[in-house]
Fold this protein.
Amino acid sequence: MSTPQYHSERTYSYQDYVNLSTEERFELIDGVPYNMSPSPSRRHQQILGQLATEFTFYLRGKTCEALIAPFDVRLFANGKTDDEIRDVVQPDLSVICNPDKLDDKGCKGSPDLIVEILSPSTGKLDRWIKYKLYERAGVREYWLVEPTNSTIEIFTLNEQGRYELHGVYGRGDTVPVGIFEDLAIDLKVIFRD
């Protein structure tokens, strides 16, 4: 397995990201590479699979799509070349409602909804760095899933472009999906043992 050679004195572009020959997964935030956690846990994958199933079933026949990692999301990419893009993330689950944002490389622009499933090694990145990045990028809804406690924190973008905590939901709750008026997800299904 080859390891990317990062140099702290420079920033990286999407073109660099694509050209680095590596099996290691990483993301770019403001041109700075962040290693992604090692292989996700079985619990992480179970939760992701259930969420993806719920969204995919609901979106069947609709314009929006639900896509799971590994899937490159190039933020702030409108009108930019690959050499100019400095933010590339791989959210656990992305819901994109504008088909023009999708291409063979992934998503070019902000998804409407992003779900990140926390792990011990990604907590700070997901809770603060990505939170601020997604807020700045205009992602309308951001879900933070805590597998250990079986909870989901949902943040929605307000009119001032800032995230507000919409709610914290647990195993016995049904979660309303803010970007869709008629979708609610039963967390007993998502957090089943």
